[in-house]
Task: inverse folding
């Protein structure tokens, strides 16, 4: 079986597994990678960019090498190749768990259980929940759904289309390292620099595809494109900016503004400020549904692109 068809069948099966089962509950490969990366950090950590770059190379290179070895091992069997792609896709995407967590916070807000919503919010993002009221939590959830649609689903599918199982694994490894060491704390300002920059690079195509698909699948395509063009460049993240702005325009809401992370207050630009309204609790469900539509469109685009590219080189 051709590699493009292996990816098509395997990625579709993996997304269906995620839809039905969510993330693996035990022995999650991403958690295992995180533990291994933490062990490498304990050996290599120095307050220096070079040592951080070595950490990134060892962790990402090791994960990709294992994926390449596994792919080579199953290549003689079409069934095993599809199964490996399906299992890897299931392990690295997290769309269903993202939607479940977002809806859990939304249900708490709808029931008037603000403290319950605050307890659940850290499962989605690193905001300080005690600093947020009901509408602030709803806005944080919508922003997290938008950003993680790109990080947890679309970006992985794009790199899977480009590189098969090693592409899937490599993207998730880069994204996980960025979450671990890529933030601007005193410990990781230098050490995490390479991981953060590599994550920006790896996330670039998936973020743009997510923004395009949010505009296509949302209720206001023109509004999504307008917000993307007007506001994305003012966001501090080169990848979260287009995604969050497009979601804001598609949903007709305002995102961004004052945020609090770990006691540190950030004043971010407002996205879709001229046309959007304040986020309401009901927008959580709308954002989750938009994320789901974007996911399946991204699968179709990724599979089609790989099939077309293979056809041209045949």
Result:
């Amino acid at each position: 079986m051709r590699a493009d068809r292996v990816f098509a069948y395997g990625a579709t099966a993996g997304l269906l597994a995620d839809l039905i089962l969510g993330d693996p509950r035990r022995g999650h490969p991403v958690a295992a990678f995180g533990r291994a990366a933490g062990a490498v950090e304990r050996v290599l950590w120095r307050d220096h960019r070079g040592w951080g770059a070595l950490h990134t190379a060892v962790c990402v290179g090791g994960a990709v090498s294992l994926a390449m070895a596994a792919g080579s091992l199953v290549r003689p069997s079409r069934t095993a190749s599809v199964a490996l792609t399906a299992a890897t896709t299931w392990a690295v995407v997290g769309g269903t768990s993202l939607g479940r967590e977002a809806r859990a916070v939304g249900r708490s807000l709808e029931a008037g259980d603000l403290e319950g919503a605050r307890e659940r919010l850290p499962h989605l993002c690193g905001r300080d929940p005690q600093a947020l009221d009901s509408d602030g939590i709803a806005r944080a959830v919508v922003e997290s759904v938008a950003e993680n649609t790109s990080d947890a689903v679309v970006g992985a599918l794009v790199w899977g289309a480009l590189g098969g199982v090693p592409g899937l694994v490599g993207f998730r490894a880069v994204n996980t390292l960025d979450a671990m060491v890529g933030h601007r704390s005193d410990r990781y300002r230098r050490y995490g620099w390479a991981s953060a920059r590599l994550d920006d690079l790896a996330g670039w195509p998936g973020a743009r595809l997510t923004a395009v698909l949010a505009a296509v699948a949302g209720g206001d395509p023109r509004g999504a494109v307008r917000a993307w063009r007007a506001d994305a460049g003012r966001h501090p993240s080169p990848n979260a900016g287009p995604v969050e702005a497009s979601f804001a325009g598609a949903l007709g809401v305002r995102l961004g503004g004052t945020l609090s992370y770990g006691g540190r207050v950030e004043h971010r630009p407002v996205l879709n400020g001229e046309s959007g309204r304040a986020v309401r609790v009901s927008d959580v469900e709308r954002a989750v549904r938009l994320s789901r539509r974007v996911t399946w469109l991204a699968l179709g685009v990724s599979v089609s692109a790989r099939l077309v590219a293979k056809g041209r080189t045949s």
